[in-house]
Amino acid sequence: MDYIKLFEKAMVVSSSVALFWKIIKHMWSPINVEKEPLKVLVTGAAGQIGYALMPMIARGVMLGPDQPIIIHMLDTEKAAEALNGLKMELIDGAFPLLRGVVATTDVVEACRDVNIAVMLGGKPRREGTERKDVISMNVSIYEAQASALEQHAAADCKVLVVANPANTNALILKESAPSIPEKNITCLMRLDHNRALGQIAEKLKVRVSDVKNIIIWGNHSSTQYPDVNHATVATSSGQRSVRDLIADNEWLNTEFITTVQQRGEAIIKARKRSSVLSAASAVCDHMHDWLLGTPKGTWVSMGVCSDGSYRIPPGLIYSFPVSCQNGEWSIVQGLKIDEFSRAKMDATANELIEEKSQAYLCLGQFCSLSNTSDEE
Fold first, then answer.
1. For the Lactate/malate dehydrogenase C-terminal domain, which residue ranges apply (predicted)?
2. Catalytic site residue 220?
């Protein structure tokens, strides 16, 4: 009799455990469902930065290790063969997160339903070419791509402009695609931000991850202002000011700034090529933090549309310190600006004002030519 009761109890316990396990599996099942793939557009994809960037995106460096992706690659007819070769390599890479690859020279096909657009394509500045001429050459490119994104991309598509002059190319795109929210158009300043972090880490002989809250103000040009006044370093005794630890204001206000400003040229001189690896890494950092968020108490530098913060004229695409949460960025407010910083910030803003005037002039000329062509 005791054996029968014991058996009955065992059966009840076993049934309860089985039921409990089913409930647990049911509760966790939505978490285990694979995310919907995100479509990532890369223009100028057959170039050097694109070649370095593609495997990083495919491996989840940009959007995380659990986010499936479909890569859309756009380039010119001249680069079509190289673009198809890159598609073959992506397929051969057997990346677990990669759910598809579109390689095309058709801007409409490239932009269709994309969630993220990384704009690498553009006319680069070459020796002897003035910055205003580069702006003029890029107007037609960004007008066409802006129109395609506006009409065919996903409604909340986030755009990162990398091609130089990045700030003003982003401005052209913004003006050419008024239905895309201003908050969804940014330009790459993370490369400069990372360069500044690296210089401080080298100087102090600390891990770069221990340095935070450096700021790059302004334009992605030699007028940009790398600012360490609010930067800190994690030490065994807590967070310490970069200025206190380095204790060399002369270096911080001169050599450090010019080293960061001219780092790209120094790399070209050393490699005979531009800084494609670090640029690709910075693209991933920028998008990762924008979509997945910055750590609490930490900010990064992004080129965004000014709202007048820190007395920067509204409408400029200017690099500010930003924090990110839930796929949105916000400018860090309330930072004290000394006279030295004010002068540097205004100088780079003035350069962007000049570029904006040149861009508007080019946009007007392009629109006028387009209208004349239509009438004929």
1. 190-358
2. yes
